Amino acid sequence: MSVLFAILLFSVLIFVHELGHFVAAKLSGVQVNEFSIFMGPILWSKQVGETLYSLRLVPIGGFCAMEGEDGGSDNPRSFDKAVWWKRFLILVAGAAMNFVVGVLLMVIVYLPVQRAVVPVISSFSDFATVDGENGLQAGDRIVELDGERIYVQSDFSLILSLNPGDVHDLVVSRNGRNVVLNDFLMEKHETVDASGATRMMYGINFAVQDMDIGDRLVYAWNQSMDTVRLVRLSLQMLFSGQAGISDMSGPVGIVQMMSETAKASPTWVNALLNMLYFGAFIAINLAVMNLLPIPALDGGRVVGLLITAAVEAITRKKIDPKYEGYLHGAGMMLLLALMAVIMFKDIIFLFKR
Predict the structure, then answer these.
(1) Which of 96, 193, 237, 297 has the least CB density, counted as fewest CB within 10 Å?
(2) pLDDT tens-place string over residues 133-170
(3) Fold assignment, 115-210
(4) Active site residues
């Protein structure tokens, strides 16, 4: 069931993405030749006006085929004839729809939550040395840590793990105003937790807050923004060498993680909410990743659009779209190669288990 749910989830997210392009194109007066769910041979189709609506055999992906999106069309309603800001809106509409769906799924996941741990200090353990008149105090809300916004309580340990060392920069909200603690010494101390395991801890205890409907909506939004930030942090780690291809997962790896999470859930309700959280996480990831300035992605097309629009405005000469098409074609080949490597790695790992 979890595998079927994952396939359905990916299909819905891709459908929503292409639907964003479709609606924006229609509203912008750009001709859409075909709007397809899935890929491969056509199973069903219906011509409505100028647009062919189709359902295809392979349950992966989908597309919104606009007239002249790769240039070379004399149709006055083609994509390449539309003014630059309409093309911009059409290109970003897919990612925008994915982000909206991700936030809505986060809201669904956190609506049942009655209480949650928040980044507000409730007390300190006896061994703590981070509290005091010139340090942290009970009631402080952690706002920033080492330049990173603290959206949810788990961000505190995450950012600390990414910035090893005992000296950190903090911003806390205290009595309605922000207090800055630069070069603040945060010492860990060896202690034994409730399970008897020895751990290194700061001795900071965070508050548990009762959540009303407004708090839950804010919490869902903060989780969404935290997911956006996680994409950036992951890319930073990838480019800095802290992470590699072995740490990346494609659809096969994600389906495996979703299946394991569902199996480990105590009830079917928990399993469903965990799967929906995965859906929200993936939707927001797709939105952000798709807007990266990489050829073949919508973000790469947006960059190409802005550059060509600026050059054409200055030179008053139309740039042949085939050159941008070559760039996106090469980018697509590289992207497909990377996806194949990651999928192969996920499959090998699956069979080794």
Answers:
(1) 193
(2) 889 999 999 999 999 999 999 999 999 988 888 999 99
(3) Pdz3 Domain (2.30.42)
(4) 18
